Structure formats: C-alpha cells, structure tokens
Amino acid sequence: MNREIYQEPLVSRYTSKEMQKLFSEKTKFTTWRKCWIALAEAQYELGLTDIVSAEMIEEMKANAENIDYDLAAEKEKEIRHDVMAHVFEFGTKCPKAAGIIHLGATSQFVVCNTDLLVQKQAFELIRSALLQVIKNLAFFCDRYKDLPTLGYTHYQPAQPTTVGKRNTLYLQDLLTDLEYVDFFMSNIRARGAKGTVGTQATFIELFKGDHAKVRQLDELVAKKLGFAGTIPVTGQTYSRKLDMKLSETLSGIGATAHKFAVDLRLLSNLKTQEEPFAKNQTGSSAMAYKRNPMRSERMTGLARKLMGLPQNFAGTYSNQWFERTLDDSAIRRMDIPQAFLLTDAILKLFVNITSDMVVFPKQTEKHLRSELPFMSTEKILMEAVERGESRQEMHEVVKEHSMAAGKVVKEEGKENDLLMRLAGDDRIPFSIKELQEIIGDYQQFTGRAAEQTHEFLVEVVNPILQANIDSIGDFDSSLSV
Predict the structure, then answer these.
(1) Rounded-to-integer distance, Cα 277 and Cα 292, Å
(2) Residue 64: its pLDDT value, please?
(3) 419-439, pLDDT tens digit by residue?
(4) What confidence category does residue 280 fall into, taking pLDDT thresholds of 50, 70 and 90?
(5) For residue 288, what pLDDT is reported?
(6) pLDDT tens per residue across span 225-264
(7) Hey, where are the domains in the chain?
(8) 116-188+238-359 and 14-93 share a CATH fold
(9) What is the pLDDT of residues 153-206, one digit of tens each?
(10) Which of 12, 81, 284, 471 is catalytic?
(11) Domain 376-446 maps to which CATH number in 3.40.50.1820, 1.10.40.30, 3.40.50.300, 3.40.50.720?
(12) C-alpha angle 136/138/140, rounded to 5°?
C-alpha cells in the first residue's frame, strides 16, 4: 500500500476481495477482450469468413489475458480514448487479428456489455450474502420467539412483543430486498451488438443488407457472453434507466440494514440486546467500561452513503440527451462500483452482527415489568366492567392514577406504584392481590407474537432458504478493522 496517496476506504477497510476483484481493471479489460472475441466468433459463424478467420479468433483467445497495461495507458494518454487504446494494445498481441478487432462496433459494445456482465456477477455475491443474513436472523427469531420484551411505538413503551417477533420485521424486509434483487437479475440482458447509435447500421453493411443475420449476430453475441438475451432497443448505450433501478435495488438493502442497525443501537443503550463484542475490543479511548455498538454504527454510516446514491443515477439517466451524452461516463466509473462495494460492506457487517447477537433476558424482563402496570390497565378495565362498573368511570380513575404514577417514576425516580394506588382507591373494586392476579404472567400480553414468528418462519422463510440452499455459500464476514 502506498501510504503517500489517498486510499479508498471501501477497498482498504470494508469490502470483500471477491467484490473488489469484480471491479478491478483486470476484470474490466479481460472482459472487454471476451466481448471482442465473442463478436469475432459470431461474425465468423454467421458467414463473414472472408474477413474473419478461425486463425484470428484463436490468436485472440490465446492472448485474452495477455495485457500490457502500461502500453495501453500510454496510448490512452496520447489519443484520449480508453477503448481504442486497448484495441491498439490487443492488436500488438494479435497481429493477424488486429484489423478485425472491434469490427463494426462502437466503444459501448465493450463498455456496456462488460458493465452488465460484472453487475450480473456482483449481484450473485450480494444475493448470497443477503441469504446468509436471512438465515442468521431466521435462527435468531426461532430461538427468541417466546421471549417477551417491551414493544415501542414512537420510542415510547407500548404493548409487549417478543424478541423473535420483533426481528421478523427485519426478516420480512430482507425478503423484500431479495425479491427485488431477483427481479433485477431476471431482467439483466446484454446490450449486444447494436452499433454506434443503436441502429446496427455498420453490421447491416458488413452482412450486405441481411437483416436476419444482423439480428442473429445480436443474439449470438449475447449468448456467447452468458446472457439470456439482449435489450431490444438501445441508443449508443443501454438505457441508464437500468442503472437507476440497480441503485434503487441496492439502496433498498441499505435502508433495511440502516433500520436494523439503528434499532440495535437503541437496544444496546437499553442493555437488552447487543451486537457481538470481541474479547479484546476497546469501546472507548477514555471510558474503559463502554461497549460501543461500533459495527452497527459503521453499518448506519455506510447505509447512509448507499441510500444517497440513487439521486446521482436519476440525474445521469435524465440528462442523457437523445442517443447518448458522455456526462454519464465519469460518474458511473465511481457510482456503480461504489454502490456494489457499499452493499458488500454493509452485508459483511450484517452477517457478522447477526451471527452472534447477544440478548440479556433479565434486563429485558426488568424493562418489561417496570411498564407492565400501565400495560395491564386495559385488562383491569375489562375485569371491572365484568363486575358491573362503568368503563368510562373506571377509565377516568385509572387515567388519574396512571398519570400520577408516571410522574413519580419520571420526576422522583421511584418504582412504578400504579397497582398500589389503584388498590388503595375505593372506587376500584380490586385488592392488590386481585390486581396482581389480573396481571398474572406477562407472557399473556404478547398476543400471538410467538405463534406469528413460528408460522412466518415455517411457511415463508424456511421454504425460501431451502430453495436457495446452494446459493448461501460460506460468506466471509470477518472484519479487517
């Protein structure tokens, strides 16, 4: 590492080697050569044997990864065109084929098709990691499906839920993200061989006006590159609308991760649930006792960056005048790799955190019990009505004592004494013992949380995991820092 120049933190600190390699110069330029080879093969197979020979194609294949990067860079500096610099460099390795490399194509033949190929592979990595997070959370939800915890609305105590049920909310959002990833992947097609402005004019010339052959060329190139088909119509580039949808799909994963991470940070403050904490980890340079949720905080920051990218892609798409303008080039060089690298980094953290989250049942119960008298008031009202009392009158009495008990808790720091207050009021037809019996086991206040969790896992999540068992893989979630 050259420590005298800026290093991209996404590469130096946060992302997997697999994703880094996909967006490397080696991957890009060797894939350009695959595109040129596919084009030459298709042209030869469709009858241009008087121009393209089998010997030329073999020469190109033999030098597919034999790249002189310095020579290409020197040529690009001279002619200010990266694609033509690599056409020139490839030609020096393939003297017999030099004249037919890039035949009939525009620069975007290699650029767009390569972008789409890399995106396809990058989404496979994203999908695998996403499935691993889903698997981890599914295990966690099942383990804690019965553990009652305080539910919150507006970050104020509401009704109890269970730890497992709460985490099914993140699971459901992750399944939505998976669905959108699958939809996007199912719609990735090759740009194919469309020519300078998408009209295939040069290929019509090459094939002497044979439209059928030109259509075959488009499909055959796509097939050779591993695509299911081609985008039906393009300008010079494939529509940057597709990039918009790419960024929206990835930023959706970022949004899910952001919500999860923020919630975990809040739970960490309550000391009820935490991310893993390494044995030798330091929480604070000044406060040795601290267990800062640094992984969740990092995930929040990375997700914030990812969620901000779609506006760039929308701006690029909407500013592509007619068949194409070049203002898309520089920003796409940064934004597309960043979108995938950010998602990779986020999922790396997501897998890491969900692999070994810590729950503190006693602290969870403490929070729940402190609010339980308030939460039981509806049940107390219903029991009072069964004894012939007016619900409206009882509601006013309960509200009066609830406000007073809440004030004592907040202003004086004392325990919640609502039940004692109600028992001491002659208008309430219950003794303290009877009130305690009405509350009973706090598990009763969680409704169908445990059952919902079990049903969701069995009926929805597990079938998806089973259907994708070969795609989950062994995702490396270890962190470098």
Answers:
(1) 9
(2) 97
(3) 899 989 899 998 888 888 877
(4) low
(5) 46
(6) 999 999 999 999 999 999 999 999 999 999 999 999 999 9
(7) 14-93, 116-188+238-359, 376-446
(8) no
(9) 999 888 899 999 999 999 999 999 999 999 999 999 999 999 999 999 999 999
(10) 284
(11) 1.10.40.30
(12) 70
For this structure, is 284 an active site residue? yes
- Decide if 258 is catalytic: no
pLDDT at 445: 82
* Strand pairing category for 148-153 and 156-162: antiparallel
Identify the CATH number of the domain defined by range 14-93. Answer: 1.10.275.10
* Model confidence pLDDT, tens digit, residues 73-92: 999 999 999 999 999 999 99
What residues have CB less than 8 Å from 390, skipping those under 6 apart?
Answer: none
| Domain 116-188+238-359 top-level CATH class | mainly alpha
pTM over the 0.70 mark: yes
* HEC per residue, the chain: CCCCCCCCHHHHHHCCHHHHHHCCHHHHHHHHHHHHHHHHHHHHHCCCCCCCCHHHHHHHHHCCCCCCHHHHHHHHHHHCCHHHHHHHHHHHHCCCCCCCCCCCCCHHHHHHHHHHHHHHHHHHHHHHHHHHHHHHHHHHHHHCCCCEEEEEECCEEEEEEEHHHHHHHHHHHHHHHHHHHHHHHHCCCECCCCCCCCCCHHHHHHCCCCHHHHHHHHHHHHHHCCCCCECCCCCCCCCCHHHHHHHHHHHHHHHHHHHHHHHHHHHHHHCCEECCCCCCCCCCCCCCCCCCCHHHHHHHHHHHHHHCCHHHHHHHHHCCCCCCCHHHHHHHHHHHHHHHHHHHHHHHHHHHHHCCCEECHHHHHHHHHHHHHHHCHHHHHHHHHHCCCCHHHHHHHHHHHHHHHHHHHHHHCCCCCHHHHHHCCCCCCCCHHHHHHHHCCHHHHHCCHHHHHHHHHHHHHHHHHHHCHHHHCCCCCCCCC
pLDDT above 90 as % of the chain: 78
Q: Residue 444 corresponds to which tokens in the numbers above?
A: 């009763």
pLDDT tops 70 at residue 278: no
pLDDT, tens digit (0-9, with 9 covering 90-100), for 198-224: 999 999 999 999 999 999 999 999 999
What average pLDDT does the segment 82-111 reach? Answer: 97
At residue 150, what are phi and psi to the nearest 5 degrees?
Answer: -75, 125
Spot the catalytic one: 154, 186, 285, 478.
154
Picking from 114, 120, 123, 118, the residue whose alpha carbon sits closest to that of residue 37 is: 114
Task: Give the number of C-alpha atoms closer than 13 A to the C-alpha of residue 439, restricted to the C-beta side.
Answer: 20
- Span 366-371, average pLDDT: 86
